[in-house]
Amino acid sequence: MEEHPLKRAWKFQVLVALVVVAVISFGVYILRDGKMEVTINLDNEVRTLTSNADTVEDFLQENNIILEKGAYIDVALKAEIENNMTINIKRPRLYTIEANKIAIDVKSIYHSVGEILEDNNIVLGEKDFTSPRLEDSVLSGGKITLYKVEEVVEAYDEVIPFENIVNKNHSMDIGTTKTVQEGENGLKTIYLKKEFVDGKLLGTEVVGEETVSEPISQIIEKGTRDIIVTSRGDTSYRKAITMSATAYDLSYESCGKNPGDPGYGITASGTKARPGVVAVDPKVIPLGTKLYVQSLDGSKDYGFAIAEDTGGAIKGNKIDLFYEDSNVVYRFGRRKVKVYVLND
Predict the structure, then answer these.
(1) Strands 318-322, 233-248: parallel, antiparallel or unpaired by DSSP?
(2) In what order do the strands lie in the sheet with 177-181?
(3) Pairing of strands 72-73, 45-51
(4) Distance between alpha carbon 216 and the CA centroid of its chain, in Å?
(5) Which end of the chain is more exposed for a tag (fewer CB within 10 A), N or C?
(6) DSSP tag of 3
(7) How many Cα atoms sit within 13 Å of 275 on the Cβ side?
(8) Could you tell me which of 281, 296, 288 has the C-alpha nearest to residue 334?
(9) How far is it, in rounded angstroms, from Cα 310 to Cα 327?
(10) Angle (CA) 121 123 124, round 5°
C-alpha cells in the first residue's frame, strides 16, 4: 500500500531536525573536547598554546604558569577558555626603595617611579622628591631614593638703627653741637624659612617681616656761626669752647716766685707776663693761639688774648687769665667763660 504523501513529508521534516541536532551536538563536542588555541602574553613574551582546559585557572595550571602575589591578569581565573582567546599577564618586579639611608624591597608590575610608589601605598609630602624622578622608568632591581623635605619658619628680632639728622644752627657757635632729640633704635621681627632635606639644611629664605617699633631719629643742631662782634668789629673764629676760668698775677701766691727769682714774670713761652696773656693746657689750646675770652656772667669780657703760659693746675678745659691788679685776681674767683679760637 502506497504511503500517504503527508506522512512522508512529516517523516522528512523529522529527519532534517535530527540531522541539525546531530551537527550542532558534534560541533559542541569538538569545541569542548577538542584542542583550543590560546595566546598567552607573559611580561611581553607572547606564545600561542593549545589546551583542553575548561577555565583560565585550569589553563595556567596545565602550563605551569604560577601567578605570584601582586601579579596582574586581565581575565578572571574562573572564566571559561574560548578558542583564540588572549590572556595578558604581568608579573611583579623587585625594586629597592631607600629613604633616609633605610632601604626596603618592594614589588610592582609598574615601571615608572610614581606608579611603583603608588602601588606600594607610599605617599610623598608636597615638597618631597625622588631620584629618579616620578615620571622616570626604573629597570627591574633598580633603586628609588626618597628625599623628605621639611620647611620650618623661625622668627627673630632685628634692630632698626635710628637716623642721625644734623641741622645747621646759625645762632650757635661753629664747632658746637646740641642734641635736640635723642635717637632710639626701632625693632622688627624677621620671619625666616629654613628648608631641610633629610634633616640637613638646604637653604634659607626671608618670607616676611613685621615692625614692632619704629625708630626715633636723633636730631642734632650744629653751630655755623663764626663771627663775634668785638671792640675791633666783626672777628672770625673757628672754634668756641666753654671753659672754667681763674685769674693770676705776679704775686708769690699766684706764681710761687718773688721779684729777682729766676724766671720771675716770664711765661712758659718765654715772653713777659702782661694783660692779654693767658695760661692754657697745650693739649687743648696750643701755645701761640690767638683767642677772645667772653664773659658769661654779664661782667666785662676779658677780650683779646694769646695763649703763652701754662700752669700745674691748668688741665683740660681750664684757662688762667693774667691781671696786673691783685685785688682783681682775688675778686675773680672761678667763673665760666667762652673762649673763641680766632682765625689767624
Answers:
(1) parallel
(2) 164-173, 218-225, 177-181
(3) unpaired
(4) 26
(5) N
(6) P
(7) 9
(8) 296
(9) 22
(10) 155
DSSP 127: S
Q: How many CB atoms lie within 10 A of CB 302?
A: 23
- Specify the length of the chain in residues: 344
Strands 36-42 and 85-90: parallel
What helix, strand, coil percent values describe the chain, rounded to 5? 15, 45, 35
Delineate the domains of the chain, giving CATH numbers in brackets: 36-90 (3.10.20.30), 93-147 (3.10.20.90), 151-222 (2.20.230.10), 226-342 (2.40.40.10)
The C-alpha cell at 242 is 666753654
In the block, cell 626671608 appears at 206
- Are 269 and 286 in contact by the 8 Å Cβ rule? The answer is no
* Parallel/antiparallel/unpaired status of strands 93-99 and 143-147: parallel
In order along its 344 residues, the chain shows pLDDT tens digits of 455 454 555 555 545 444 444 444 444 434 445 689 999 999 889 999 999 999 999 999 999 999 888 899 999 999 999 999 999 999 999 999 999 889 999 999 999 999 999 999 999 999 999 999 999 999 999 999 999 999 999 999 999 999 999 999 998 888 888 999 999 999 999 999 999 999 999 999 999 999 999 999 999 999 999 999 888 899 999 999 999 999 999 999 998 899 999 999 999 999 999 999 999 999 999 999 999 999 999 999 999 999 999 999 999 999 999 999 999 999 999 999 999 999 97
pTM of the model: 0.52
